[in-house]
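STRUCTURE REQUEST FORM
Protein name: Uracil DNA glycosylase superfamily protein
Source organism: Bacillus amyloliquefaciens
Requested output: structure tokens
Priority: standard
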Amino acid sequence: MICGRERLSLYLQKLKSPSFSGGFTKADLLTANFHLAKDGDLDMFYSPHNEYINPRAVIAISGITPGFSQMQRAYKAAAHLLKSGGSLETIAYETKKAAGLSGSMRQHIIEMLNECGQPAALHLEDSSQLFNTKRELLHTTSVIKHPVFYKHKNYTGHRPTISRSALLSRYALKCFPDEIEMIKKDILLIPLGKAAETTCRTLKKNGRMNHAVILEGFPHPSGANGHRFKQFDENKQSLREQIQRFDKFI
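Status: completed
Returned output:
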């Protein structure tokens, strides 16, 4: 399922425009061509990889917002698919696979889910299958679906907080739950880090995403989070118990 089909088509066409250099550096992508919105020191840019929604998912994993490396992977994949004549559906799906929670962060997520006992809950051998052979079980997304930068650096969810930005609040409190509610069945929603988890808990308190069971205490898997090992060790037993309880409902 594609959300924002017309917008996806519009920004893909920009890859073909004479003004696009053909490169995928910040100087190429963090430009007016791909700029969506500005709010003080925050800038939001379009990325094609969060337009695909998997309505059959059993697990949804949500970061706070894509970083530049995810944006870069998404556009590289999109450009390649455009050259080969890929359809909008194909581009939306394949850029999601290529860029969603990609890089070392994906491996860290897989390792932590394995230690939490997630594969057994879904009758899998390894959590890595969620990103390849069992992709139909997984939906990856972000609380703020497009890349956001604070003073030209990846936004981390803290400066400013989401509640202090009208732009971020609109995406987090309206667009994000709208997306999650397109998944009709009960799901285990795994927010990555405190900022994403706080948003998910707020939404649940406000009556949104009622079919989602939030996995609480999952550390942000970024290598920049130097406390993730300690946080995971402290929360591992609780995470296991939460996954086991969810297992009874699927």
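Reviewer notes: The mean pLDDT is 94. The chain is about 40% helix and 15% strand.
Form closed.
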